[in-house]
Amino acid sequence: EQEVAEYRKSLAICVSGFDVPRPVKTFEDCGFAPELMRAIAKQGYEKPTTIQCQALPIVLSGRDVIGIAKTGSGKTASFVLPMIVHIMDQPELQKEEGPIGVICAPTRELAHQIFLEAKKFAKAYGIRASAVYGGMSKLDQFKELKAGCEIVVATPGRLIDMLKMKALTMTRATYLVLDEADRMFDLGFEPQIRSIVGQIRPDRQTLLFSATMPRKVEKLAREILSDPVRVTVGEVG
Ligand code: ADP
Ligand code: MG
């Protein structure tokens, strides 16, 4: 009986916000281009996970989203796939440089995982992704960023270093993701996150993902997201 109760809790879905787009049941429902559909199939993703069903149409509509779901629920694709669409929607003859999509994650390992996932979908379109985190030579990273990219996946500290070194500018950035926001706060990255957010134009789309929503993260979300839709999957502490 307790098992059943636990199971029901893990299935709970709560969506709140105004004018929320309806969830999808399939990747086809998302209206992805054939190249992206092929990349999804190549990953072996047959249908969207629960959080993806809810979050994909909302993120694709351009809304800010707070996504709360436990580890392993497929949060990465729910911001990476719409990011590819967002980038492909940009006017081609843009003179500006620097990333369009900026993803912050708490650790190297997580940033690297997201980077790999982003690359799989970006490849089909020739979209360039760079990983920016400690443990790599700053000079090599500087050179790579100078060469240009549309996506940056970074830990906050190293991204700040690269911004200070003028390895990149945020003038073109319009899609910001804060992944595992609770862990970034636990690791003391709040000042760095605020500094990064402050360098990105306010008319950006902002997505915040977290396994839990402590007060401090809630406060940040209220400050930096506009008219967000909140999607919670499972009972979250
Ligand atoms: P989270 O960020 O919520 O912890 P991830 O995005 O890392 O979860 O995804 C967890 C695992 O599920 C990864 O191995 C990922 O490749 C896989 N995955 C994601 N979406 C799907 C899907 N739609 N179908 C099958 N596997 C998926
Ligand atoms: Mg994740």
TrEMBL record:
It comes from the Eukaryota. Residues 56-231 form the Helicase ATP-binding domain. Residues 25-53 form the DEAD-box RNA helicase Q domain. A motif (Q motif) lies at residues 25-53. Belongs to the DEAD box helicase family. This is RNA helicase. It comes from Gossypium tomentosum (Hawaiian cotton). The lineage of its organism: Eukaryota, Viridiplantae, Streptophyta, Embryophyta, Tracheophyta. The chain holds residues 208 to 444 of 775 of the full protein.
